[in-house]
Design a protein that fits this description.
alpha/beta, single chain, 3 domains, elongated, 545 residues, four-stranded antiparallel β-sheet, Rossmann fold, six-stranded parallel β-sheet, 20 strands
């Protein structure tokens, strides 16, 4: 019953965010629980058992997935990654049908918008833009904003950011006991006319904060170009126990103190929401270069885009959905690498080349009034495309419609009549798990066939239930393009109709009509099914032919 109205949102694929504990530790603290729950020790352990390279562990993520009727990742790509990661819990279900969905994160727009931008949006957008941030039509009014006016507001925010950072650095150096010369020099760091990149987030190793320094000689040429200078502002924190993450911060700070980087690379300590607000509304461009596919979502780039700072990011997390070619830039390719060193090198080369050949020249291309009109066009596209799609309003609506309301309804059904449906489903599921291994499926289908899109082929199957009833099953054709490891991409499911019996077997028929072209794998699946199932694949068991 508890499972029926519970939603679990998984927030990261990295091991540090998926706690797992030794069974001995679990027994030490929870030995009283299984008796109170009416189960034994092995049942309690099996709820969360995960086989890891160093042995079986009690996984909190496995526990949450087993005890939640609904589950989701926090971006479309993270949903795919999660279905792959946790496929072993539903071993007889195609990976694409593992019951873990996705809702992409969003941001609270009014929290992250500077007042100057709020005033600008109030002047040119619809009257109730604050209440309609998730409506793309709200942002159509950006076309009315004169390029020069948006640029003027942005430059004012940039100057405010630089003043803020100079003040922070001077206070930091004073606190550290630095000499008056260095304290005075801190008041001159950063050039309000130079192209300014922002990078601020939690310093986990997979976020690759030091990727920019992969080729220091090339980076120095980019930063110190006398005609088109570039500067970078870093900020962020690492988990207190994350020594590699803290080492990244240390390296960036030490580099920022070297003469070749002084004033061009700045690290702002003690990262908090105040620093974040200044950064996302003041930098020219937001940089994000995680090691794909480890970024579940990321939200800092959404905040920057809302303020007109285009993203330059690896196609990971939210940027896979956000990037459209006109609102920012992509680092590297939309792919994974087996070797991290190769991935880092490829992404660093892409980063440098895109900066040198596309981004920096575009920023410094000005009209007669000194306005970078092509750059402002990208700023507007970033706002127009990202503001509605990645708003918290959109996110909460999706959670409500896709999860909260359905969970409330199923919870009510399972709790009614003194948990009558919950007891009934628990007994039925136990029976299915114990006896489904006896079900046998035989397909009657050509070994190979060629069809045109829309052409139908008749397929039949025989199913021996061996003590179970046909009323406990759904028999389906499952067809899809073969992916890595024979996983089906976007499987097409066609229900089969029982037409009779033959020598103890139930006979099923259906027509398969491919909706797309390509080479398909086709299987016949018999899976447990009855009214009361929240997801058709929630048991994760099936008989295949």
């Amino acid at each position: 019953a508890v499972r029926s109205n519970t939603l679990f949102t998984t927030h990261t694929p990295v091991p540090a965010g998926n706690d797992a504990f030794a069974f001995e530790l679990v027994e030490k603290f929870f030995w009283q629980f299984w008796g109170q729950l009416g189960i034994d020790r092995n049942q309690f352990i099996d709820f969360a058992r995960q086989q890891l390279p160093w042995g079986p562990q009690y996984s909190m993520t496995v526990l949450a997935l087993r005890l939640s009727a609904y589950a989701n990742g926090v971006s479309a790509l993270h949903g795919e990654v999660s279905r792959s990661m946790w496929h072993f819990l539903w071993p007889q279900t195609p990976e694409a049908q593992v019951p873990v969905g996705s809702i992409t994160n969003g941001i609270h727009s009014r929290t992250w918008l500077a007042q100057e931008l709020k005033d600008l949006y109030t002047k040119y957008l619809v009257k109730n833009w604050r209440e309609e941030v998730d409506d793309p039509a709200t942002w159509a009014g950006l076309d009315k904003v004169p390029d020069a006016e948006l640029w003027q507001v942005h430059q004012a925010r940039k100057q405010r950011l630089i003043d803020f950072i100079r003040d922070r650095l001077q206070k930091m150096y004073t606190r550290h006991g630095e000499g008056p010369q260095k304290i005075a020099a801190a008041g001159q760091v950063l050039d309000p006319n130079a192209f300014t990149i922002g990078f601020a987030r939690r310093f986990a190793t997979y976020k690759r904060a030091t990727l920019l320094f992969h080729d220091e000689e090339r980076l120095q040429r980019i930063l110190n170009d006398p005609e088109r200078p570039v500067q970078i502002i870093f900020s962020g924190k690492a988990h207190p126990a994350d020594e590699p993450g803290k080492a990244l911060i240390q390296r960036i700070y030490q580099l920022s103190q070297q003469p070749e980087y002084w004033g061009k690379i700045v690290f702002v300590e003690n990262y908090d929401m105040n620093i974040a607000r200044h950064l996302v509304s003041g930098v020219d461009m937001w940089l994000n270069n995680p090691r794909r596919p480890h970024e579940a979502s990321g939200t800092s780039g959404m905040k920057a885009a809302l303020s007109g700072a285009p993203n330059f990011s690896v196609l990971d997390g939210w940027w896979v959905e956000g990037y459209d070619g006109s609102n920012g830039w992509a680092i590297g390719e939309e792919r994974e690498y087996k070797d991290e060193t190769t991935q880092d090198t490829a992404d660093a080369l892409s980063l440098y080349a895109t900066l040198e050949d596309i981004i920096v020249p575009l920023y410094y291309a000005r009209d007669g009034d000194g306005v970078p009109t092509e750059w402002v066009k990208i700023m507007k596209n970033a706002i127009r495309t990202c503001a509605p799609q990645f708003s918290m309003v959109r996110m909460v609506k999706e959670y409500t419609n896709l999860y909260y309301l359905p969970a409330a309804a199923t919870g009510s059904a399972f709790f009614d009549n003194h948990f009558g449906l919950a007891r009934e489903m628990a007994h039925w599921k136990q029976t299915m798990r114990q006896r489904w291994g006896n079900v046998h499926v035989q397909a009657v289908v050509p070994e190979s066939m060629q069809l045109t899109v829309g052409e139908a082929v008749k397929i039949s199957a025989r199913v021996w239930y061996n003590g179970l009833s046909a009323t406990d099953a759904a028999v389906e054709i499952v067809a899809g393009e073969a992916g890595p490891g024979d996983n089906l991409r976007d499987p097409q499911v066609t229900a089969m109709r029982m037409t009779g019996t033959d020598n103890g077997a139930a006979v099923y028929e259906a027509e398969l009509k491919p909706s797309t072209s390509g080479q398909f794998l086709v299987g016949i699946r018999a899976r447990p099914d009855r009214a009361g199932l929240i997801n058709p694949n929630e048991l994760g068991i099936a008989a295949w032919a």
